[in-house]
């Protein structure tokens, strides 16, 4: 099961295991778009809110944000609207 807005590990593995020579142009484009979207979602979602499955998947796909606050939280903090922790 994947987190909201995230690509499942099964989908990632399926895309990675299928040889590029067997993919259509549409599939290549879709894989790239899904990868960029998943990477952005990974960056926006704090580590503390990720499922164990997504943390493992991010570690393998270099999508880990090293337990940093989300970009949204950083923006709130910069404007004085976030937690003072």
TrEMBL record:
One Pfam family this sequence matches: HSP9_HSP12
Basic and acidic residues: bias regions: 19-37
InterPro entries in UniProt: HSP9_HSP12 (IPR007250)
Superkingdom of origin organism: Eukaryota
Ranges of compositional bias, category Polar residues: 1-11, 53-75
Region (Disordered), start-end ranges: 1-85
Name under which the protein is recorded: Uncharacterized protein
């Amino acid at each position: 099961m994947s987190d909201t807005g995230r690509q499942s590990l099964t989908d990632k593995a399926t895309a990675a295991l299928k040889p590029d020579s067997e993919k259509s142009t549409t599939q290549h484009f879709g894989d790239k778009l899904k990868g960029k979207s998943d990477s952005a979602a990974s960056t926006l979602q704090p580590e503390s809110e990720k499922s164990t499955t997504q943390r493992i998947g991010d570690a393998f796909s270099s999508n880990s944000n090293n337990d940093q606050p989300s970009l949204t939280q950083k923006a709130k903090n910069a404007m004085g609207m976030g937690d003072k922790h």
